[in-house]
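Annotated sample (chain length 289).
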Amino acid sequence: MAFGAARALRLIKARSGHAAERANTGAAAAHHEHYCMQLIRNRDYEGFLSSLLLPTEFRRSVFALRAFNVELAQVQDVVSQKTIGLMRIQFWRQLVDDVYADNPPHQPIAIELWKAVRKHKLTKRWFLRILDEREKNLNEKAYRNIQELEAYGENAQSSLIYLLLEVLGVRDIHADHAGSHIGKAQGIVTCLRATPYHSLRQKVYLPLDICLLHGVSQEDFIRGNSQKRVRDVVFDVASQAHVHLEHVILDDYLNKIRKVDFDVFHPSLQKRNWMLPLYLKIHSWRKIY
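Output written by the structure step:
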């Protein structure tokens, strides 16, 4: 095993320590909750705002789930070698197993997940689907078609939504159907939003079949090309998100990208929407999603 990979494994193992019995002490519990909340606030601001709209009794468990998701989502971006990425995924896979064995490591997200799983009887299968999809994405290959991109959305994003619904006490086939559509749309939007960032890393994940249809190469995106044929690719991909279910946060991005004629590199798309908290609150009052 390479030195870098071995060192990463030691660092990952160092984070563990079976001390769940200390999880409910006042200071420790507050620290664990704050850790998850700050992680989401820094890495998933829209998810953070959405969580604040939920009733207080559900927020802590939701923060735990979103923190777990954030950690997995960033594995691909923070590791330089696939081997290290696989080791990080394995760490989180083992963590989930330990949580369900009532033996979580003394790590903030693990402790908070353990509490959420015990409180809401969360389904382990959804955690495993997220892990499997994140591990699969370490191959860093472009999606061959829109169906593969939708499969990513279903496995990585919809699975999280199913867990969030379970926290809220919603176990309904119709809610799951809506969650499936939202997750697929979110997966597509996430891919679009990350395109400028990925392009800087010489990576392109947009569906190859749509790129070929418009005569666009991966090099066009890497160079930041904004010609019409490139925008046509973005239009087709964004349109598929509309085919599923409109969601307030996703709809905000889709509206903005339409206003700039589907130029995925437009600077306005990289700016945070400071009106989003008010926008979300209004929709919450009106019960519009």
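Annotation: Residues 146-167 form the longest helix (22 residues).
Annotation: Confidence is low (pLDDT under 50) at residues 13-19.
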